[in-house]
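To make the argument concrete, we let one protein speak, a sequence paired with a row of C-alpha cells, as a model reads it:
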Amino acid sequence: MDQSKFNNSPQAPQLAVPKRSFSLELFVGLFAAAGVGAAAYLAVGLAGLEIGNTNAYTIYAEFDNISGLKYGASVEIAGVPIGVVSSIDLKDPAARIALRINKSVKVKDDDIASIRTKGIIGDRYVKISRGASTTYIPAEGTIVETESVVDLEDVIGKVVHSLTGEKDEKDSNDDKSDKKS
C-alpha cells in the first residue's frame, strides 16, 4: 500500500512546535555540572590524592619501631602541624617513613624526629625537635637522628620481669659453686 497518499492529505492536522526556551535547561545543566564537580572534589579530598602543584616537599626518616604510627599522621614542631606522614615502608630491619613537609618550614640536618603519643586514646604522630645547625635537609633527604616509639608493653614486661626476682644463670651458677665449697 502506498503510504504517501495518506501523509499528503490536506485533512491531516499540523502540530505546532512550541518555542524553545533554553533558560530552564541551561540552569538545570549548570546545577548538574556543579553537583558532579563538587562530588569529584570531595572524592579526591577523601582519598587523600593531591592534584596539581603542592606547597610541600618530602623527606625521609628511619625508625627501629613505629608501633601505632599510621599513614596520614601529623608531623609537628613545637606542637604546630607542619606536615603529614605520606608513606610507611619496611627497609629491613628498620621502618622508613616519608614525611610531606610544608615548603615554608625547613628541617635542619641535626633535628631529631621522634614518635610520640597524642591524647588518651594514643594516636601517634611525628615530633621534630629543633637542633642548632644552620644546614637544612634537602627534598628527598633523610633525617639521621630519630627516636623510636617507647612501647608500653615492653616497659611493663621489663618491670614485671625485674620484680619476679628471677636470677640470671650466672648468679645461680655462683650460688651452686658457693655451696660446694
Q: What stands out?
A: Helices lie at 4-7, 22-47, 152-163, 169-180. The beta strands are 56-63, 74-77, 80-91, 94-102, 112-118, 123-129, 142-143, 145-147. The mean pLDDT is 81.
